[in-house]
Amino acid sequence: MNEISEDSPRVVPFATPDRNAQAQRARPPRVLAVANQKGGVGKTTTAINLGTALAAIGEDVLIIDLDPQGNASTGLGIDRRSRRYSTYDVLTGEAALRDAIVATAVPRLHLAPSTLDLSGLELEIGQARDRAFRLRSALTPLNTVGGSTFTYVLVDCPPSLNLLTVNAMAAANAILVPLQCEFFALEGLSQLLKTVESVREQLNPGLTIHGIVLTMFDARNNLSGQVVADVREFMGSKVYDTVIPRNVRVSEAPSYGKPVLVYDLKCSGSEAYLRLATEIIQREKTLCAG
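RESULT FIELD:
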């Protein structure tokens, strides 16, 4: 792992967690791909803030930025000069994943950053036989006993169903789908579900939908309430109980290079992401028990 450079963000104080759960560290990390081919639904915001919330309650989290725009990297305050290696280097085989990982200002939260080079990845490896398994192969060292301290890996996918998203799905245990509370919320969801089914059949038989998180909920808007009802009727128990509200502090935080839990821990957005993290861990216990 790289040394923390002078450009690295200053660490913020989080309480030291109860380490009774650390016995689980011998298990491979759970890999969750945060995916939806629609843009502007809160994928990156969810990856950043869910990762921070999981870290805040004691999990060791790695966020892998697979979006060429690199918003997860910028939103966590990782300066471009600090990105010696990126996920592009990892997927092209120029660097190991451990070499690309950098520390963030949040204790127990690390990041494999992205650069614009990723936008040309499909042209470079599109003909390779292992093109869909590059990320899975890069994650393999983390799956060995003692190979990783991470308990969760969150993969921030680009807003399209391209080779990068397929790599994420082929490497993931499950998919987490952010869905904006707007009129066209269900548009494209059926296509995403078909893609997940295709990946399950051809590349990753164990892939599941972990859950759908409703984002940008506005209680003043009757449409938001109707969308929540429609999605819950359509997807049932796959929809998390936690709903992420539309919140100005959540929108402001990335411009300061901070997760909202660091920017304003008391705001409704921060509280929602902490509830979501707790709900995900509870759902994980149920899934693992099953």
